[in-house]
Amino acid sequence: MNRDNLLVKQPFDPGCYTEQVNQLLERMTVREKVGQLNLDHVSDSGDLTDCNLGERSSMEAEAEKVRRGLVGTMLMKGREEANYFQKVAVEESRLGIPLLFGFDVIHGHKTVFPVPLGGASTWDPQMLEEAEEYAAREAYADGINWIYAPMIDLCRDPRWGRVAEGAGEDPLLGSLIAQAKVRGLQTVNPETGYPYVAACFKHFCGYGLSQGGRDYEECETSPRTLFMDYMKPYQAAVDAGALSTMSAFSVLNGQAVTGSRYYLTEVLREQFGFRGFVCSDYGAVKELVHHRVAADRKEAAAQALLAGVDEDMGSHAFADYCEALYEEDQRFAEAVDEAVRRILSVKFAVGLFEFPYFPEEAEKYMLALEAREAARNVGRHSIVLLKNQEKILPLSPSKKYFLTGPLSDNVEEMPGAWAQYHPGTNVISVKTALEEAGLDFLQSDGCPFTGKYCFDSQDDSGFAKALKMAEECDEIIYVCGEKAAWSGENRGRVSIDLPKQQYRYLRELKKTGRKIISVLMCGRAMSCQELAESSDALVLAWHLGTEAGHSIADVLLGSYSPSGRLPITFPCYTGQVPYYHSWLSSGRSRESLIRYKDGENGPLYPFGYGLSYAEITYDAVHISRNRWKADETIRLEVVLTNHSEMDAYEVVQAYYQDVVSSLPTPDRKLCGFTKILVPAGSTVKAQMLIPVERLALMTLDLKEVVEPGEFILFVGRDSMCGESARIVVE
Predict the structure, then answer these.
(1) Strand 198-204, strand 537-540: pairing
(2) Which end of the chain is more exposed for a tag (fewer CB within 10 A), N or C?
(3) Could you give the angle at which helices 548-556 and 369-382 cross, rounded to 10 degrees?
(4) pLDDT band at 52 (very low <50, low <70, confident <90, very high)
(5) Phi, psi of 383 (to 5 degrees)
(6) Phi/psi at 570 (nearest 5 deg)?
(7) What is the mean pLDDT of residues 148-164?
(8) How does residue 45 score in pLDDT terms, banded at 50, 70 and 90?
(9) Contact status, residue 516 vs residue 475, Cβ threshold 8 Å
(10) If you compute the radius of gyration of the chain from its CA atoms, what whole number of angstroms results?
């Protein structure tokens, strides 16, 4: 990963495996070819897929399919189970082709890191790349060699539950994080010389546009906006060398993506240069029937295959019909052969033909001390300080605190979406971490969660006891927010505010007259205006994973100055969404003509926002010259001075505006950033590289062009920073 935050281009090239793949393909029967396109889901357990295989007979039934060459990939985990099936594939099937074992490892495996939206708050792609290395090693230790991640769908509507899995609203930040995560997941195992796992970026394409935040819903935007913003992270993942991708469930601009040759072949392969394989999302092939673009599963299989889907997850449509299609039409025969080539190339690329088994000694990676330390560090960097009135934070060792709220001692919710709580992983709650730190406090939930969703809880039975305890303390730490199950797949919300019960409790706490430090845990941007107004300090902690409590305590106690910055805009009200920083310029002023008559026009907290305990000033912004050519890279320098006695990281952000352009362009849009440590009492120079091509606009025929003319650069702490310089592109 380039520490200068420049995108790299090292796409996967299967050329070196062509001879081996073709030799193997020539020996395969049609049935064996089709078998490579079939992904079997072994079983399902709870909210997450699991490999609870049950009785030995069920394993044998699946093993027989593997033995006959009818399975190419499997959705499961478990080292012993994976090695069992791999042994059957390698040693007992006719051709000995090894299996890929896929699983969702969205933000760590056993060692859970912050939810991806929280991780994006680090604004540190290098840190996130290293986090994915830990995830890849743990997954490998658990019998997984193919990961359905990263999820890189750009999203500007936090009602959508899967916003928690992505990097937020901005194409540049999202692209840099996408390439970092792909490279981290595909880190090379020094014992084999091959990647631990193959990455599968998702969901191609445009899934984050789900209308109204309703999962699986149609997605709609102009082609210009789609390619100007939403497609950028996918291109970055391809350029980073991703070995596979997953097609989206949804309809995008009138086409069901899993059946769209335009998106999966013309755009993904021919335009973006992707040469790995495409796996459908779960059941997406047969869902073409429900989209009513295919009459039955056979027609759905035909559409998906010709569109460019190589692997059918969960539908068994390829397994049931591709053999017949192969014999019926040369087009299908060629499509099947090409799909097999792509899958086999990836299997060669991850070294499965040389190292098919998962070694027992890989167990050392699971919940390793260094992985937990990394999770704690990423958690610290993910936390965003939103408010700190009268510098009430850090906490004072001379005061007694009342720790309360539904998430104050709730280890089950710490991991967040797409992560199951396992008691053996020793998840750290806020209460546990503050006890370890020796803070003087009392604790009571006050308003605990009741039930899975519990948005309408009326249970105030814990209020009286809690308020009495609050009276015995100097200040209150209120840990509130969302349950893990409130975000993730099919977890949309019509209101992105706190539940009414948490506000009723907050109002009672406010009556005590104690100052309130609120810690907000969530998996999305929230319209928490009352929380912000009622709190003396507000700390956004997301769902931080295994080490959540330690990360939060490190920030609250002042051993680490918060450096997280918002990767997504926080609106004042749900009714403002979608809301993001890079709106196209309007014909009428947004400042003088307020759009809403019954509420605020601006955001609660803008994109890029975040406070620090340190007092850091921007003393100068310097650019070596003011005239540039389109193929050059601007070197920008900022002088930062830390006037405090605490070391702190600063995220310097640069935005641009095209003063006059042939088509409407954003008022401002992120074009660069850098994160730098500013030691206490020191002055440092922060340097940032901005390729002039980032100032390009998208034409109506979907070409990126840097038009000659004047550009304004805004440099500062967030997307609302002031003008710093003007340049001319010749």
Answers:
(1) unpaired
(2) C
(3) 50
(4) very low
(5) -70, 135
(6) -95, 115
(7) 98
(8) very low
(9) yes
(10) 26
Spell out where 205-276 has E strands: 244-247, 251-252, 255-256
Phi, psi at 575, each rounded to 5°: -65, -10
- 488 torsion bin: left (phi>0), alpha (psi -120 to 50), beta (else): left
Q: Is 560 helix (H, G, I), strand (E, B) or coil?
A: coil
Q: Name the band, by pLDDT with cuts 50, 70 and 90, for residue 452.
A: low
**What's the confidence (pLDDT) of residue 2?**
55
- Mean pLDDT, rounded, for 2-23: 91
Determine the residue type at 331.
R
Strand-strand pairing, 38-41 and 312-313: parallel
Q: Print the SS3 string covering 483-520.
A: CHHHCCCCCCCCCCCCCHHHHHHHHHHHCCCCEEEEEE
What Å distances lie between residue 350 and 109, 353, 605, 665, CA to CA? 20, 9, 43, 42
Query: What's the pLDDT at 51?
Result: 39
Strand 515-521: give its sheet, edge to edge.
384-388, 537-540, 515-521, 475-481, 401-404, 441-444
User: Chain-centre distance of CA 386, in angstroms?
Assistant: 21
- Residues 102-149: pLDDT tens digits? 999 999 999 999 999 999 999 999 999 999 999 999 999 999 999 999
Please state whether beta strands 73-75 and 188-189 pair in parallel, antiparallel, or not at all (unpaired).
Answer: unpaired
- Are the beta carbons of 4 and 38 closer than 8 angstroms? no
Give the model's pLDDT for residue 47.
41
Q: What is the pLDDT of residue 600?
A: 84
The H or E element spanning position 317 is: helix 317-328
In one letter, which amino acid is 350? V
| Gap between the Cα atoms of 168 and 152, Å rounded | 9
3-class state of residue 540 by DSSP: strand
Q: CA neighbours within 13 Å on the CB side: how many for 329? A: 10
**CA distance from start to end of the chain:** 31
Please report where in the chains the tokens 């092939």 appear, as a residue: 285
Adjacent-strand bridge partners of 539: 385, 519
Of 40, 104, 239, 281, the active-site residue reads: 281
Is 337 a known active-site residue?
no
What 8-state DSSP symbol labels residue 473? S
φ and ψ at residue 532, rounded to 5 degrees: -65, -40
Span 386-401, pLDDT tens digits: 999 999 999 999 999 9
Measured at the CA of 59, the angle between CA 58 and CA 61, to 5 degrees, comes to 65
Cα–Cα distance for residue pair 309/636, rounded to 1 Å: 44
Between CA 701 and CA 157 the distance in angstroms is: 27
**CA separation, residue 202 to residues 166, 178, 249, 473, 722 (Å):** 10, 10, 11, 48, 36
Secondary structure letter of residue 405 according to DSSP: S
CA distance 511 to 145: 55
Selected residue with higher pLDDT from 694 and 421: 694
Q: What is the pLDDT of residue 43?
A: 57
Question: Tokens standing for 59?
Answer: 């394993």
DSSP 584: B
- pLDDT grade, residue 68 (50/70/90)? very high
Whole-angstrom distance, CA of residue 515 vs CA of residue 537: 9
Nearest to 117 by CA among 435, 487, 517, 514: 487
